[in-house]
Description:
The chain is built from seven helices and 20 strands. By secondary structure, the chain is an alpha+beta fold. It is globular, with a radius of gyration of 19 Å. The chain binds manganese (II) ion. The site of manganese (II) ion has 7 residues, from loops.
Amino acid sequence: MRLCRFAEDRIGLVYGEEVRDATAALTALPGHRYPLPHHDPLIANLPDLRVSLEAAAKSAPPIPLDAVHLISPIANPGKIVAAPVNYKKHLEEARADAAIHHQKQVEEIQKIGLFLKAPSSVVGPSEGIPLRHADRRTDHEIELAVVIGRRADRVAKEHAAAHVAGYCIGLDITVRGPEERSLRKSIDGYTVLGPWLVTADEVPHPDDLDLTLTVNGETRQQANTRDLLIGIAELIAFASSFYTLLPGDVLLTGTPAGVGPIQPGDVLDAAISGIGRMQVRVRSLSPLAGRGLG
Ligand code: MN
């Protein structure tokens, strides 16, 4: 199943080049009152909702995909756990380029571990990336995003797959500089998830997916998830040894070589085989209305 969110919080199922609105099925979700849960209620209930989502979509008219405004397929990720350097060639390029490493030690993921991105940084492909520090080098990073479906607390690598709801494309947009990763990567709009969630049953080999990112038509990143230093199952085990992972939590698995700067006006085209493809525009952050201009 390919689940998207579009327009004003509509849920859709994607069939080929069309979307069908399945929002009606959400009435079956438990109503939450304060205090709200730390997980995403739709992802937590997805196995139970599949039949009614498909039934709702069946009776909805098809909408062409290119006519819909795609927002993040995960509405409420509790946390975004990200792998900093998880492809050998990216490790090599980061070590070789001072504009990437900024005199900080760049080490393999086994030594430096993981970091967190703020859930408030998440946007969908149609929202675009608003550059907040346009004067500083800001890079694209395409990554396979793994969405957790079932609570995972200290799971073994062998059992990790059972905790995955599905996959989407992730862009880990990064301001280069000396500050902590989580500051530089948690800016509003700097985590793009999309174009939709493909449920795990449709991705039998997540450790063999091609990733491609182009900027204005020029290929910048091209890799395959088989080259991950720590593969997906091991990454889930590693992350869940620190944090209890909850439904809707997102694991960004790390970016391959080829990272490079983006500018307002650029169009990123990101694709992962078996998942999909999305175009994302880079723009300037609009100024705050009425501030300091008298
Ligand atoms: Mn990254």
